[in-house]
Amino acid sequence: DIQMTQSPSSLSASVGDKVTLTCRASQGVSYYLAWFQQKPGKAPKTLIYGASTLRSGVPSRFSGRGSGTDFTLTISNLQPEDFAVYYCQQYHSYPQSFGQGTKVEI
Amino acid sequence: QVQLVQSGAEVKKPGSSVKVSCEASGGPLNKYTFNWVRQAPGQGLEWMGRMIPILSVANYAPRIQDRCTLTADTSTNTVYMELTNLKSDDTAVYYCLGLTEDLVPLDWGQGSLVTVSS
Question: Which candidate from B44, B60, B105 shows the least CB-CB separation from A34?
Answer without folding.
Answer: B105
